[in-house]
Amino acid sequence: MEHISKRLISWASILDDQTRAQATLASTMPFIFPHIALMPDAHLGKGATVGSVIPIRISPTWWKARPNSITTLPSCGGHRCSPY
């Protein structure tokens, strides 16, 4: 496990520079709480880092986790994937 920043933690043993940059940028968004988690298979995605869990603060007392947020994956047939 590597703490890349206060709001970004990675469990990936190999993380390319583009993926790291994409996740670091996402972790600076004000509604991220408490941090983005990168799973061992994290890699660059369109929109969000594939293999990430992005918890978002909805209000001061309520938040929800968004696995992969919304991204495009070849394994999804090129369709937009969502946890819903």
UniProtKB/TrEMBL annotation:
Lineage in the entry?
Answer: Bacteria, Bacillati, Actinomycetota, Actinomycetes, Micrococcales
* Originating species: Subtercola frigoramans
- Give cofactor(s), names only: Mn(2+)
Instruction: Answer yes or no on keyword rRNA processing.
Output: no
Name of this protein? 3'-phosphate/5'-hydroxy nucleic acid ligase
**Which InterPro entries does the entry mention?**
RtcB, RtcB-like_sf
Q: What is its EC number?
A: 6.5.1.8
Catalysis: reaction(s): a 3'-end 3'-phospho-ribonucleotide-RNA + a 5'-end dephospho-ribonucleoside-RNA + GTP = a ribonucleotidyl-ribonucleotide-RNA + GMP + diphosphate
Q: Which UniProt keywords apply?
A: GTP-binding, Ligase, Manganese, Metal-binding, Nucleotide-binding, RNA repair
EC class, as a word, reads ligase
What start-end ranges are recorded for coiled-coil regions in this protein? none
